[in-house]
Amino acid sequence: MYGKERFCYLLYSLTRMEQPKTVVELGAGVGTCSFLIAQALKENDSGMLWTIDNGQEWPQYQLDVQKEFATHKEYFNYLTEKFGLQRFIRLVDNFDLTKNLFFDPMEKIDLLFADAQGSDPCGCMKVLRSYLPIMSPRSNIFIDRASTLNHSYLYLEKVVSDLQKNKIHNSLLEGLTRGSQELMQKFVSRSKFTLIHLPEKDTNKVNQCQNSTAWIRIEPLDFYFDGDIINMHLTDQAFIVDKK
Predict the structure, then answer these.
(1) Distances in whole angstroms, Cα of residue 180 to Cα of each of 92, 141, 176, 183
(2) Is 97 within the bounds of a domain?
């Protein structure tokens, strides 16, 4: 329905590998990505997914689910309990993303999936402006559809290339508080940005307009992996473990 029947497995795998603590999803839909992310968090026994959806599109796809539910929240709560995911997922249904794209989970965000705003350059800009100041040093931003919308593709290529050079477009700073602007400038100066386009082939794909995701990978500028990751180097044909 929303074209994420393949992409959801990438989110599951990445969540299992990187074990994020705080995940935010803008637009839950029918939960294709939501519940696979939450399942990965459950298997990690750590982390929380905040998924934002006020259910305004529920009447459009209500008949496509196998059971009848009066509201989107009822449907979502049913599946949350069915799969035992109560500790790992929170549906925020009282938040209107059309009026305010910025949801603050009160923690640095490790993984953000933006699937509610427009995927045009303006929509991409709003995502980056809203969330760059509160992303973790090692984190991921996914923007639905942006890679196969040519003007959005070109916009992200330019913006991410400039971020890599420690340049921030004025449009990403406008409207932010001075504190948020300073946070973004500090964050950009210490980070490496990589843009990865994830287009999907149309073979056996029902919704062929939902056929890509733009992935912005954020990493700290360093030559060691931080946190609980073991760094090794080869000396005299023997691996030396070096825990930072």
Answers:
(1) 24, 18, 6, 5
(2) yes
CATH code of the domain covering residue 51: 3.40.50.150
Whether the CA torsion 64, 69, 72, 78 is positive or negative: it is negative
175 neighbors 129 (Cβ within 8 angstroms): yes
Its domain, for residue 85, covers: 7-242
Structure tokens at 228: 């609980």
Asked if residue 85 belongs to a domain, the reply is: yes
2 belongs to a structural domain: no
How crowded is the C-beta side of 35, counted as CA atoms within 13 Å? 15
C-alpha gyration radius of the chain: 19
Tell me the pLDDT of the chain (244 aa) as tens digits: 666 888 999 999 999 999 999 999 999 988 999 999 999 999 999 999 999 999 888 887 777 776 778 899 999 999 999 999 999 999 999 999 989 999 999 999 999 999 988 899 999 999 999 999 999 999 999 999 999 999 999 999 999 999 999 999 999 999 999 999 999 999 999 999 999 999 887 777 676 677 899 999 999 998 888 777 888 876 655 566 665 5
Number of domains the chain contains: 1
Q: How many Å apart are CA 117 and CA 183, to the nearest integer?
A: 24
**How far is the C-alpha of 23 from the C-alpha of 38, rounded, in Å?**
9
